[in-house]
Amino acid sequence: MSFEDLKLHPSILPNIAALGYESPTPIQMQAIPVAIKGRDLLGIAKTGSGKTASFVIPILNQLLSNPLGERNRKPEALVLVPTRELALQVADVFKALSQNLPQPIQSLVVYGGVSINPQMKAMYGVNILIATPGRLLDLQRSNAIDLSEVKTLVLDEADKMLNLGFKKEMQEIFDLLPKKRQNLLFSATLSEQLSGLNNVLLTDPVVLEIDSPAETEELINLSGYFVSDDRKGPLLRHLIKSQKMKQVLVFTSSGNKADKVAWKLYKNGIDASSIHGKKSQSARTQALKDFKSGKVKVLVATDLISRGIDINELPYVINYELPRSPKDFVHRVGRTGRAKTEGLAITFVTREETHHFKVILKKMKRYMDMVDSETLEF
Fold it and tell me: Which of 52, 79, 96, 323 is the most buried (most CB within 10 A)?
C-alpha cells in the first residue's frame, strides 16, 4: 500500500515524500483511514513505529477538507504530550507536513520552563496546538486560549498522560473540552489506565494493537552484565572506551544520578552531558542538540526524558539502572534499532535485581545472555 491509496488530500503527499516516508507503516496503514473517518481510536504500537504521523496526517487532512474559520484563540486540534522534548518533536512533524498547503494551517507548541508571554501572543490564529498539560492550563487560566471548539483531541504516550502524575491536570482539561469530539490515543504499551478507557474517554473506539515485526525486534540486540553498584561507573567507562562507542544514551533512575554519572564520565575524558526534568528548558534543548550533532558522545537521561528523544540511527543504549516497570524498559531500548539500523541495548543488573529483571524480560518475551563483570579486568 502507498500513501496515495489512503486517499489523502493531494497537497499533503509531496510533504510526506519529502520526509522520506516511502510507504505507510502498519500503524499508519490502519490508523489513518480510521482517524479520517472521525472515529475514536486507541492505537498501540512499539516505539519507532510511526505513531506521530498516524495522527498528524489525518488532522491536516481534516483541516484541508473544510474551509478554515476566522482567526481566533480557539484551536480545532489539541495534542497533549507528557514532556517538552516530545512536544517539540511532534511540532516538527506538523511543521514539515504543513509546507506549501493550499490554505495555511498554523500549529503552535507550548510547554513550561520558558516564559508564557510569547506563547500567549502567538496563540491567535492557531489551528493545531501541541501542549504539555501544565502549560496548557496556565494559558487557559490566563484567558489566552479557548478550548470550546476542539474537534480532535490526541493523547500521545497516552499511558504516561493518564497515570497518577497527570490525573488531576488531565481531568481539568477534559472538563474544558467539548463533549462531542474525536479522541485519538496512542501508546507503545497497553496499561491498566488504557484498557479501561473504553467506558471513560473513548466512544465506540477502534482498537489497534500492532505487533512489532520480527525484523524490528531483531534490530535491537540485547546484552547484560551482572555488576555491583560500586563497579557500574568503571564498567560503563570500560565499555565506552574498549568498544569505541561514539553515541551512547545512558539511562539512570533519577536526575541526581544522571548528573553524577555524566560528571564522572567527563572527569575521565569522555564528553558527556545529562538531561532530566530538573534542568531548565534551554539546558535540555542544548544537551539534546549537542548529542544529536555528535559534539557530546554520551547523554545520561531519566525516564521522564526517554520518550522525547528520537534519533533514527542511535547505536547504543545503556541501562545504568533498571527502571521500575517493564514498559519503561521497552521505551528505553526502543530508542535504538530504528530506521532499519541495528542497535545494541546493554543493561547493568545487580544480583539483588535479578528477579525484577527476569520479570521485565518475561514481559518483553525476550531472552538475554548475561556476563558476570567480576570476570572482566578494567
Answer: 79
CA separation for the pair 312, 94 (Å, rounded): 18
- The predicted structure's pLDDT at residue 122: 94
- 342 pairs with which residues across the strands? none
pLDDT in tens, 294-332: 899 999 999 876 665 667 678 899 999 998 888 788 878
CATH of span 214-375: 3.40.50.300
pLDDT digits (tens, 9 = 90+) for 34-83: 999 999 999 888 766 788 999 999 999 999 988 777 788 999 999 999 88
219 three-class SS? helix
d(CA 107, CA 13): 19
* CATH 3.40.50.300 placement within the chain: 3-209, 214-375
CATH class assigned to 3-209 = alpha beta
Cα 185 from Cα 190, distance rounded (Å) = 11
State how far the Cα of 234 lies from the Cα of 229, in Å rounded to an integer: 10
* Helical H segments across 66-204, by residue range: 84-97, 117-122, 133-141, 158-161, 167-176, 192-195
Indicate the DSSP class of residue 343: E
